[in-house]
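ok so I'm stuck.
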Amino acid sequence: MAVARAAKTQRRTRIQEEKEERILDGALEVFSASGFRGTTIDQIAEATGMSKPNLLYYFRTKEAIYRRLLERMLFTWLEPLKAFDAEGDPQAEIRSYIRRKLEMSRDYPRESRLFANEMLQGAPHIGDELNGPLKQLVDEKADVIRAWIKAGKIARCDPYHLIFAIWSTTQHYADFDVQVRAVLGESRAGEGRFEDAARFLEQMFMRGLEIKGA
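replied:
not stuck anymore, here's the structure
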């Protein structure tokens, strides 16, 4: 995990923690718009209102800042999937997962775009995380879905592609928010668009998972 340079040498003070957060927030703005290759340390320093030497005291390189953002984002992104409860009712669990993912698209659009840019580049900075912790978690939750299928609680489906479909449909509302708002028009492009999306996606997924004739 990428560790801030200042944190390696001493216990961080409140001011140091605040400056690190300031750097990460400014860097997120730049990286999410320009990607890793299109971002420079000078741009990050300008976005944070800090001098370049001061910024480099906290993070030695651009990559260190970028990796910290990706690792923190991935941890947050996986929390809703971790909450997927094998003992819970499948409909309630899947509905809750859809809604939590939409809430994340609403609340963390910059993080979603950052992640999308990394994936489009072939995940050069976070490949180990994808092949390790992410894959392990998805394998575990795929087993949960298989157990629900075996118990006759939901229709047969490929659990991996079910998870992929939920990811793609919910994150669309972050990565393509400009398009969504433009197409919906002014009257429907407010915060209510996320509730409209939640109702539609719940209906689409749950009907698809109903056991016919049950």
